[in-house]
Amino acid sequence: MVYFKINGLGYNCGQTKDKCPQEAQSCSECIKKRLLDLGFEFDATVEVIKIDSVDKQLQLERETIWKKFLDVLNIKHILLMDERSGLTLLNYAVSGVDIDANLLSGFIQANVMFSESSKVSNKNVV
Q: pTM of the prediction?
């Protein structure tokens, strides 16, 4: 069987390499076409990786874990807000950058209120 990993999601196409009816097509394009037929949507960020061996699968899993660690290293500030009032409950600077937490939480709350406003969401904006 040929096994693929699509953005971290495993997929077994059910075909072997030597008996594939779409052998003229590349496997990635075949998989994308099959998933489009099932109703999935793709954009430019979709990554289809063919996994030939257990070693490659382990390497991909390690890379995925490493990317998550790198994401954690990018955290500069932790701001915990009350859902209803928008008040700052926790203001913790992970890096040395100091911000005005009340100003930032007010800005975030204003954006949330604006996006939830029925007056704005029902109008067609050109």
A: 0.43
